[in-house]
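Data card: per-record layout.
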Amino acid sequence: MNSELDFEMELIHHLESIGGTKQWEYLPEVKTLDALWMNFRSILERNNKEKLQGTSLSDTEFAQVKKVICGLGSPYEAGRWIYGMNGVTQVEVDRDDKSDGSKGDHIFLTVFDQSNVGAGNTVYQIVNQIEHPRVLAGRKQRRFDTTLLINGLPVIHIEEKFHHHDAHEALNQIRQYIDEGQFSDIFSTVQILVGMTPDQALYMANTDSESFNTDFAFQWQREADSKPVWGWREFADLMLSIPMAHQMATNYMILDGDPKHKNLIVMRPYQVYATKRVINALKKYTFGVDKHEVGYIWHTTGSGKTISSFKTAWLASRLPNVDKVVFVVDRVALTDQTFAKYNAYDPDTDDENNNGVVSDTANTGVLAQKLRSKQSNNTIVVTSIQKLDRLCKRDSFVVPDKNFVFIVDEAHRSTNGDMLKRIKKGFPRSAWVGYTGTPVFDGDLTRQAFGDVLHTYTIREAIADGNVLGFKVDFEHTLKEAEIKDELLPKMLEEKYPNWNEKAINKKIANMSPDEVDGYIDSDLYDNNAKHVEAVVDDIVRHWRNRSKEGKYSAILTTHVGGLQASAPMALQYFDEFQKRMRNSSLSKRIL
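The structure for this 592-residue chain is written out next.
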């Protein structure tokens, strides 16, 4: 791999066969927008043979399809169109008049069917170096690097940069294309943007130029330990494989219909993993037989639980074994706020009639009516635990003959008292999932109320990812910078890139961001490391007077060890080191 184009081709060939199975089909002959349209037209006709009665679309008929796609005015509009009606995207076509002079048929052609993700007649293809004529006067013609197509339409676009560059550079190049209006025509349907180098990959939702912000570009993470993925191959395997890439561009996109600014949101890795675990558990759940408690999600405060819980509720409402999903808040005052947010995220909401699948409950009587309703909408009900409890206490309460999924927000507060027990008894065919940032471990209350933890994303991971606000974090290496850059990094890069010479390695190290350096320094170097413990304790003791505001504040020291090992032994190392350090210190009474 000697150039950016070599890297591009290696990525394409890797995507053709991930893990030894056939994945994306490369179309080397497709290099123009016209060729892309011809490819899409062929797939559309093949997937709608019955509706077309074995005939092809005329140029006039296909022009109607092109008009719909080219008329998508924003990524948000494209996302709503791709979502379609109940997961099926269709375009209307008036067929040409018949040979006998009678009017042609009015038909609906299927473009996407979400029930065929990774299966059925869904077609997955890759194209690269697509020529884009200039859209704005005075701007250049462009060539897009790599684009992933689903049923012939661009859905994920990737820009590559070679070694010694940063993935943000690739994303900023995409921003230039957005500024120039290049994500139009058949590229109007792109949902996800990816900036990639051999050592880093970032993804974000497609957006307009005004809202483009790489703060919302995310690294992928491994499911087992939430560690960031740096290498391009692992990123491709985890995020760009089939069916994951299709799910990311559809199931794991959020259509934020906030009236002030409508935009796309793509879910972060930990949100995706948590949602998948809940949905997989519900798929295997037997209502009325299995215990109520399905499990809980422990995601730290500020990490986006509203998005995660909404997507979980929305996907759960579409499971064949689920009749109703009830999202439960712990305070009546939060009902309206949660409904407004959920309603904005609901792709079925009509801007004029507001008749989506999410409904709120003004009072207990309305709640009872919503729970009994057999209408296809109102399948997600937002209410408070207090209203549910009052409903179950009514003498007239009759248990609806339905399978319910209850998703409880701020589950740590809802575990108190007898309300939850009464509601579970009142709904014998119900499955319960909790979302919390602070589980109640005292008395094991959260586990008793909701079952075992299904997914964890703690404050430690959130701070490292930059996904939470409101914390002042001083990050200090206990390894000297000279030791990292002069000894550890050269050795690691030599092992990873045996063909690199010393000059290339030094150039790479000189251009590495702090985050990238941290990605190379494995936490194992710190785990149970006596010198690391000494350095940390020394830093705490030296700065304690200022950090504690002259002893006015106390602190908690937490420890973490990688590889799912117990952290208690490391905590004891710190305790012993503090004891040793404090024996002859005037600060001992303030710290210990």
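Known properties of this structure: Residues 530-547 form the longest helix (18 residues). The mean pLDDT is 87.

See the next section for split statistics.
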